[in-house]
Write a structure and sequence with these properties.
Layout (H helix, E strand, L loop, with lengths): L12 E3 L5 E3 L18 H18 L4 H12 L4 H8 L8 E3 L7 E3 H10 L23 H18 L5 H11 L4 H8 L4
Antiparallel strand pairs: 1-2, 3-4
């Protein structure tokens, strides 16, 4: 209780967390449990990226991370040729698989596109949750988004190292704390 001889009124007391008494006006600490999830498969990775995308679209729409997260989500389950077309727009057509100068063998990008089309790559609807998938956490902060992006990045580095998704997510995480000036310098380097 407050000492009456100091001439200050005692602060009113209200019930706080778990029934503990807290003086109104007193500083309180709120702990937010930020759920992070395992990334066991591509479907969960897709849904986690959707959650991060939703966070940036609603709270930080100017974030460059939003663009990179969206591009990553759109590449989940897609063949390498689609990633090359998306990320190397001006030069993807020149890509080829070369088998060395001795043989002269090469597979052109046009042929790679044709082969990818014939590979029967399943176009799963990753947006539909599987009954066994854990619910995607609600992303509550930029730091939380960064943690989830790191988990997805690690999943792809282990499960699908040929995917550009880890590179995109690494770049997205590096963009999280940059201000407008730094983003402009990143996007349009001084000449």
């Amino acid at each position: 209780s407050a000492r009456g001889d100091l001439g200050a009124e005692a602060a009113p007391v209200v019930e706080g967390v778990d029934g503990a008494a807290v003086a109104t006006g007193a500083a309180t600490t709120i702990t937010v449990q930020m759920g992070t999830a395992e990334v066991p498969n591509h479907r969960v990775a897709y849904r986690l990226l959707q959650a991060v995308e939703r966070y940036f679209a609603t709270t930080e729409p100017a974030s460059l991370a939003l663009v990179l997260v969206t591009q990553s989500r759109l590449l989940i389950g897609r063949p390498l040729v689609e990633a090359l077309d998306a990320l190397l727009e001006n030069s993807a057509g020149y890509a080829s698989i070369s088998f060395g100068t001795e043989t002269g063998f090469a597979i052109s990008m046009a042929r790679m596109r044709d082969l990818s089309g014939q590979a029967n790559i399943t176009s799963d609807d990753f947006s539909t949750p599987d009954e066994n998938d854990p619910p995607a956490p609600e992303v509550v902060s930029r730091d939380h988004a960064g943690q989830i992006l790191k988990q997805i990045e690690d999943f792809y580095r282990m499960r699908e190292p040929a995917s550009p998704i880890p590179i995109l997510l690494f770049k997205a995480r590096n963009m999280l704390s940059k201000d407008f000036h730094a983003l402009v310098r990143e996007l349009i380097p001084p000449s």
